[in-house]
Amino acid sequence: MNQNSQTLSSAASDEAAVRSLYQQLMDGWNAAIGDAFAAPFEEDCDLVGFDGTHIKGRQEIASFHQHLFDMFLKGSRLVGKVRSVRFLISNVAVMHAVGGTVMAGQSDLDPERNSIQTLVAVKRNGKWRLAAFQNTRATYMSRPEESQKLAEELRAVL
Known about the structure:
Blueprint: H1 3-30, H2 34-38, E1 41-48, E2 54-56, H3 58-70, E3 77-89, E4 92-102, E5 115-124, E6 127-137, H4 144-155
Parallel strand pairs: 1-6
Antiparallel strand pairs: 1-2, 3-4, 4-5, 5-6
């Protein structure tokens, strides 16, 4: 394998690893296990929730989400899709995703809960982890067609 092929192979492997962090996060949510939801994060990470709540650190993310899973989001299911991954440098990537929630007892998304998400992943000691996550509700003020398009995009991964 020549150097160019190795570089392409490494880049593809890194992108797959970054994308898998998002799936791990969703799997943790869907299992309703705070520690599993927080597992893809760095120890000293940041998470900003849809309502502006800023949580610092993997342990805080785990306990905060466990409380949500036990109370307000009990039985909910997260669906999502990575739209893009862009490497800023070889060991830092920005990932853009969209997510939605199916509440307990429902079979469809609640479009008012759909979000646009930005995640920053870093590679340290050969392992990718999330360093930051920003979750913003997709309200699309005065543009209901955009809200509908996002709901359809997310329904495709239900």
